[in-house]
Amino acid sequence: MARTKKERLSQHKTARLSHPARTRLSHFTASGRAAMVDVSRKQSTHRTATASAFVELSLAVLAALPSNPKGNPLEVARFAGIQAAKRTANLIPMCHPLALTHIDVQAAIVPGGVRITSTVSTTGPTGVEMEALTAASIAALTVYDMTKALDKAIVIRDIRLESKSGGKSGDFSRNKK
User: Fold this and answer.
1) Where exactly are the structural domains of the chain?
2) Second label for 28, Cα 20 to 30 Å away, from 77, 95, 148, 160?
3) What pTM was estimated for this model as a whole?
4) Percentage of residues in the chain having pLDDT higher than 70
């Protein structure tokens, strides 16, 4: 019997969460209290993460991007993403402030909208996944802000981690088969 997409997704999520190495969320104490993870004993390694987001825009908004009176929305979004990555610890309560060594945010017009991709790197005791996700999210929100006068029905979707490397948990790639 064929399973629906919803059933397959539910089973996939359950399988990921029940992995033995993930039986306990790291940002909670044994008593269930939220806490920042102590990374002082972790070895510093080179860590990189890439995240993406998609801003769904109408053909009319896409056509109007070059003549936006507020400036080039894609460049403003890139700068906003870079700034956001550097401020992640101020936005996400349990994130550690990190000395980021590289931030790259790209915003490209593709069929149906704008694809945002962010890559963040550091050498340190904890990963940069949240910094990459924050950069992609804020860049996408900036595209919305720069174009909302033309269309309120803009949709931001598919904010996700694409890959990460370094650290104890090893490498992850969404496209890995």
Assistant:
1) 53-167
2) 160
3) 0.82
4) 83
